[in-house]
Design goal:
Layout (H helix, E strand, L loop, with lengths): L9 H5 L1 H14 L6 H14 L3 E5 L2 H11 L7 E5 L5 H8 L3 E5 L21 E7 L8 H10 L3 E5 L7 E3 L5 E3 L6 E5 L13 E5 L2 H10 L23 H11 L2 H19 L14 E2 L5 E4 L3 H10 L29 H9 E4 L7 H14 L1
Parallel strand pairs: 2-3, 2-4, 4-5, 5-8
Antiparallel strand pairs: 1-9, 6-7, 6-10, 8-9, 11-12
Helix pairs in contact: 2-8, 3-8, 4-5, 4-7, 9-12, 10-12
The structure holds pyridoxal-5'-phosphate.
Pyridoxal-5'-phosphate (PLP) binds next to α4 and α5.
């Protein structure tokens, strides 16, 4: 049996006819830049998340970068983020000239540990970026409480967590991306909602932030006149062809996420009695969308090799936390500064996970993993 780690092709195959028809329409109309399809997708995505305003941009990285700029963050400022995330979270802070300030993670969820945030807050701190890592929402109620107490803005990095949700006080599910001040998404092809190329989106309920972001993503333009520019903006637009594909895929996202959750449940059920393996922990009243199914184990490199010999693809996401990356050497961190992130990064192994995985494949992966260790 062959079990790929990810599968970016099957979802496209499922929607080929509709997507090609939509692409043809855009090509015939020549409506490529910020066209009707982009607007339509923005409206669909905002409605899907129960948010007010959505803006398509060219990547998740730019979604974060422009969001920080829209909050006026720049040189001399500090922004708190988890030390264990994809590097784009921190890069977006660095692009503005501000300093990323790392915080260690919760050993059970691998998300930002709220109990460690306040020690890092000072006069220069302007915002917190909460990452919903692997598809599990970060502890937003706690993060929002801390942010409010210190008058900080909160940006949600939901690049890995489309349609993940938290139950609010009224016992209703609230999707990530509209809990903080701004929510950022990536449509990189491997994501739960992935395009056929790069793409990203920003969500906010704040009209002023939305209007600023509108200019920031489109070279400072506002209004109908193409050649009037009101601030130093960027060329960071989602293109219409990607919007066509994403609009079609959005209709099936909940079904695809349910398939991921079902596979995750089966993995966890089959692995729960295996003392050498730590399975993911889903917080109560949190909806994990399993962008990734990570397990922790000793000798994961050997286990990965053994699984590869059985045609099972796995990933190590991430083998090096941000404070130990050469790119962030100038921050002066050293080993043992963030012990939980280091320990997770040394033991994490991500098992095959995508919406097209079947039970036989999950059972084969688990049997092979048990053998491998
Ligand atoms: C947590 C996180 N943040 C940000 C990004 C950046 O998104 P993109 O690759 O679309 O720029 C990613 C994508 O890999 C991510 O996983």
């Amino acid at each position: 049996m062959n079990v790929p780690f990810i599968d970016v092709k099957s979802q496209n195959a499922q929607l080929m006819r509709q997507s090609l028809a939509g692409l043809k329409k855009v090509m015939q109309a020549g409506d490529f830049i910020l066209g009707a399809e982009v607007k339509g997708f923005e409206q669909d995505f905002a409605a899907f998340c129960n948010g007010k305003f959505a803006l398509g941009v060219n990547s998740g990285t730019d979604a974060l970068f422009l969001s920080l700029l829209s909050l006026g963050i720049g040189p001399g400022d500090e922004v708190i983020c988890p030390v264990y995330t994809y590097i784009a979270t921190a890069l977006s802070i660095s692009y503005t000239g501000a300093k990323p300030v790392f915080v260690d993670i919760d050993p059970r969820t691998y998300n930002l540990d709220p109990t460690k945030i306040e020690k890092k807050i000072n006069q220069k701190t302007k915002a917190i970026i909460a990452v919903h890592l692997y598809g599990q929402p970060a502890n937003m109620p706690e993060i929002m409480r801390i942010a409010k107490a210190h008058k900080l803005k909160v940006i949600e990095d939901a690049a890995q967590a489309h349609a993940a949700a938290i139950k609010n006080k009224k016992n209703q599910w609230q999707k990530v991306g509209v809990i903080g001040d701004i929510g950022c998404f990536s449509f990189y092809p491997t994501k739960n909602l992935g395009g056929c190329g790069d793409g990203g989106l920003i969500l906010t309920n704040d009209k002023r932030i939305y209007e600023k972001l509108h200019m920031l993503r489109d070279q400072g333009r506002k209004g109908k006149n193409r050649y009037l520019h009101f601030l130093i903006g960027y060329n960071s637009r989602l293109d219409s062809l990607q919007a066509v594909i994403l609009r079609e895929k959005l209709k099936l996202l909940e079904i695809w996420n349910a398939a991921r959750r079902k596979s995750a449940q089966l993995y966890s059920q089959l692995l729960k009695d295996c003392s050498q393996i730590t399975i993911p922990w889903e917080m109560e009243n949190y909806k994990h969308v399993f962008h990734i199914y990570p397990v922790l184990l000793k000798n994961r490199n050997q286990a990965q090799k053994n699984l590869a010999a059985k045609n099972i693809g796995t990933g190590i996401v991430y083998h090096r936390p941000l404070h130990l990356q050469a790119a962030y050497k100038s921050l002066g961190h050293k080993k043992n500064d963030f012990p939980i992130a280091e320990s997770v990064s040394e033991r994490v192994l991500c098992l095959p996970m995508h919406s097209n995985l079947n039970n036989q494949q999950v059972e084969y992966v688990v049997a092979s993993l048990k053998q491998a260790i």
